[in-house]
Recover the amino acids of this structure.
């Protein structure tokens, strides 16, 4: 639970962002310290008192230690409220060694739709010392547009900083990666997860910071007024069941349908998108502030959990991304796609690049296959393309932008007044090549075609990761898309694979 003078609790609060510095390629090397403002309110500012308090919480934990901890889920209230619950997760880290710790916590004060923020600092200062950041690792993340640096998001944000003294108390030498997570849908969460999976290794610990249900009139959430303790427990633990099942769509759907005020739903979503299929999920402790204060009219729930297994590092969609298409090429192609759609709506015909003020760069003249994908309010709205390279990329984008808008038979044609609300994604494809077996297909790296008995279908590389499918589930869906039986992919099929350079418009 937050101090009474705290600002609201849920990650969907929208306050204006005054200024920002984003997309940094590298961090300055001089020492630049952010002083945490939590000392003295959220926990003791005296290092001896703070250490003794944390040691007391840890001493109360009598629980068997798990093997191969890869992530923990911790609450983020003041220690007097959630410290004991957090200790169950932190206790699992005693005696272990990690090169880096990535902490994912929700933004409570700053609106950051579709992005995450990492502070441009070298150290985070707590009463237990100045914790060094992993600047080399952070520089790699900043190469992706979804990873930015908005210092306003960190100055007064407790969700990440509250975990740092806990980590300092039980871990030895490690470097910190503090990430404040903005508001995001499933698709955005999977994009963040993919970037993290491309960079983490077996020496990386992920810490997800989240309180669970905030109940009471002050929180604007009163789904029930009787049997509050029992109803809260059911509400929270049913949400945790979705986490236990590693069911990302199910978790998001549960939170949406119940309105459960789980402030860290977005960081939890990122973790669920990252977890391998064989990861273990272990509930360590559950409690509420109501049990501590006796005030059930205004209370917050806390969960501590551990995730076991090993991270499966993902390769980027295409190692040749920067060699084939520059940032200018990508920006021009996205401008071309949107301009084409707008021009077609006004004139009923396809434009030339000059008609919409787009200069054709040499990279845009590369002969490649392409798909143009449209989303509206986070949902697929159209997707048509061509797999085999037969013409210049810019010409294919013009043609397929129109097709995705009005010729995808799965959807009604886009209307003119809907165009402004579309989000455009382009996939530029490498030439497809045959593989000897479906076992040669790499999920997250390869797009794929399946053909059998005159029928065929295609999935782009991003389809399986976005849906959370493994290889067998992917091929089952691909076979059914081709009009075949669900198990027809197991024998008698021919497969081709390709890679994709995927880029999209910035979130508005």
């Amino acid at each position: 639970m937050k101090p009474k003078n705290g600002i609201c609790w849920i990650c969907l609060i929208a306050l204006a962002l005054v200024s920002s510095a984003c997309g940094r390629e590298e961090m300055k090397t001089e020492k630049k310290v952010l002083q945490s403002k939590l000392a003295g309110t959220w926990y003791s500012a005296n290092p001896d008192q703070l250490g003794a308090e944390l040691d007391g919480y840890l001493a109360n934990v009598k629980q068997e230690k798990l093997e191969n901890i890869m992530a923990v889920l911790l609450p983020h209230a003041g220690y007097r409220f959630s410290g004991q619950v957090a200790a169950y997760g932190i206790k699992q880290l005693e005696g272990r060694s990690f090169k880096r710790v990535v902490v994912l916590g929700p933004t409570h004060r700053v609106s950051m739709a579709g992005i995450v923020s990492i502070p441009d600092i070298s150290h985070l200062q707590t009463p237990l010392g100045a914790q060094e950041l992993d600047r080399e690792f952070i520089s790699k993340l900043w190469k992706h547009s979804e990873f930015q640096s908005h210092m306003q998001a960190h100055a007064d944000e407790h969700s990440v900083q509250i975990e740092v003294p806990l980590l300092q108390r039980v871990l030895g030498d490690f470097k910190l990666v503090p990430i404040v997570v903005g508001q995001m849908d499933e698709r955005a969460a999977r994009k963040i997860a993919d970037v993290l999976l491309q960079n983490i290794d077996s020496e990386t610990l992920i810490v997800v910071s989240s309180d669970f249900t905030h109940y009471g009139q002050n929180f604007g959430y009163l789904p029930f007024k009787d049997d509050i303790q029992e109803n809260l427990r059911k509400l929270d633990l049913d949400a945790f069941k979705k986490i236990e099942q590693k069911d990302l769509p199910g978790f998001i759907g549960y939170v949406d349908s119940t309105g459960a005020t789980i402030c860290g739903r977005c960081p939890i979503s990122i973790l669920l998108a990252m977890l391998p299929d064989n990861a273990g999920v272990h509930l360590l402790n559950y409690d509420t502030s109501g049990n501590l204060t006796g005030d059930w009219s205004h209370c917050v729930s806390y969960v501590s959990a551990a995730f076991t297994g090993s991270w499966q590092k993902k390769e980027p969609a295409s190692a040749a991304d920067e060699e084939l298409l520059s940032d200018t090429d990508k920006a021009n192609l996205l401008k071309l796609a949107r301009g084409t759609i707008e021009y077609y709506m006004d004139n009923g015909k396809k434009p030339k690049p000059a008609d919409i003020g787009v200069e054709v760069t040499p990279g845009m003249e590369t002969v490649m296959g392409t798909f143009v994908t449209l989303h509206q309010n986070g949902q697929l709205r159209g997707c048509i393309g061509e797999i085999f390279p037969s013409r210049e990329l810019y010409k294919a984008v013009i043609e397929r932008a129109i097709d995705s808008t009005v010729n995808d038979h799965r959807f009604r044609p886009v209307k003119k007044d809907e165009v402004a609300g579309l989000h455009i994604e382009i996939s530029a494809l490498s030439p497809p090549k045959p593989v000897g077996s479906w076992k040669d297909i790499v999920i997250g790296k390869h797009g794929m075609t399946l053909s059998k008995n005159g029928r065929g279908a295609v999935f782009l590389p991003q389809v399986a990761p976005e849906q959370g499918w493994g290889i067998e589930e992917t091929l089952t869906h691909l076979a059914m898309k081709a009009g075949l039986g669900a198990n027809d992919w197991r024998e008698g099929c021919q497969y081709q694979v390709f890679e994709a350079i995927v880029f999209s418009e910035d979130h508005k």
Notes: The first helix runs from residue 47 to 59. The domain at 321-504 is CATH 3.30.700.20 (Glycoprotein, Type 4 Pilin). The CA atoms of residues 101 and 205 lie 5 Å apart.
